[in-house]
Design a protein that fits this description.
Elements: E1 3-5, H1 7-15, E2 20-29, E3 36-44, E4 53-58, E5 61-66, E6 75-80, E7 87-91
Parallel strand pairs: 1-6, 2-5
Antiparallel strand pairs: 2-3, 4-5, 6-7
Amino acid sequence: MNITLGNSVLDYLQKKECNELTIEVIEIDVSTCVGRIPETKINFGSPTKNDEYDSYIVDGIKINLSNTMKADNDLKVVLSGFWFFKHLDLVGNKMIL
């Protein structure tokens, strides 16, 4: 598995004075027959339970990836949105329902 960051992500993190990200898996409850849908969430900073995450250093940024996420393919953190609505997204994750 390979994790990459775009140049805009590095600039964004530098402005936020952030050098560590945590990528966790959360479950969203939907009121259909599906029940719960797993989603990824990217947080600034370190996780509360370090033993539940694998750590990687990418371009000087520490990335903590949840152990529950089974990622065999390449992942990329990208910057989405504009102005005050900018946020980080994860591209390339394939999660099984």
